Amino acid sequence: MSGDARLTRLLARIRGPVLDRALSNGADPASSAQLEARAAQLAARPAREELADRIERLVEMACKPPRRPRIELNRAAIRGNADAMRRIAAHLHGPAPVYVRGVATLQRLLTDGTGPVFDAEVPSASLARTLEHASATLRDYAAC
Q1: Which of 24, 62, 96, 127 could bridge 105 with an S-S bond, Cβ 3.0-4.6 Å?
Q2: 111 band by pLDDT with thresholds 50, 70 and 90
Q3: Distance (Å, rounded) from C-alpha 93 to C-alpha 46?
Q4: What is the mean pLDDT of residues 100-112?
């Protein structure tokens, strides 16, 4: 592997949040080397497994009584959407291919501290819409 390819992969990881936003908004991964590298990172089996595990842990945390939280969660929204979150995690764990747009949407959902997973002021319906969109775009890129 060339030094340029390694640098591109490193930059894609460092710029992950920016590239994830672009991918979740429908950017073509083939339009730049960094987008292509980030798409490959997100679609790789280890990243899918990690994302699925994080979704499952969020549901578990939201369904348990709160302890001194290190991270505030929108527990009501997560509990209200637990079935959908479990189905998405199962799909990520499974053998079916996924479209990177849906994976990027989920990645953003789990890292945006102001989004519907973490902000208790955000209604459950907002998380439901985001999960519905992510689920659809995991399976069908055109389902926007």
Answers
A1: 24
A2: very high
A3: 10
A4: 95
CA distance 141 to 144: 7
Residue 19 host element (H or E):
helix 16-24
> Which residue matches tokens 């590298």?
37
Spatial distance between the Cα atoms of 113 and 137, rounded to a whole number of angstroms: 22
CA distance 12 to 10: 5
Global confidence as pTM: 0.90
Residue 67 has pLDDT above 90, yes or no: no
Hey, how many other C-beta atoms are within 10 angstroms of the C-beta on 129? 13
Cβ(78)–Cβ(55) below 8 Å? no
**Could you tell me if residue 11 is inside a domain?**
yes
Residue 144 within a domain: no
Task: Confirm whether 98 is domain-assigned.
Answer: yes
Rounded distance between C-alpha atoms, residue 130 and residue 80, angstroms: 13
What pLDDT shows up at residue 16? Answer: 95
Expressed as residue numbers, the domain containing 17 is 3-139
pLDDT above 70 as % of the chain = 96
Is residue 8 in some structural domain?
yes
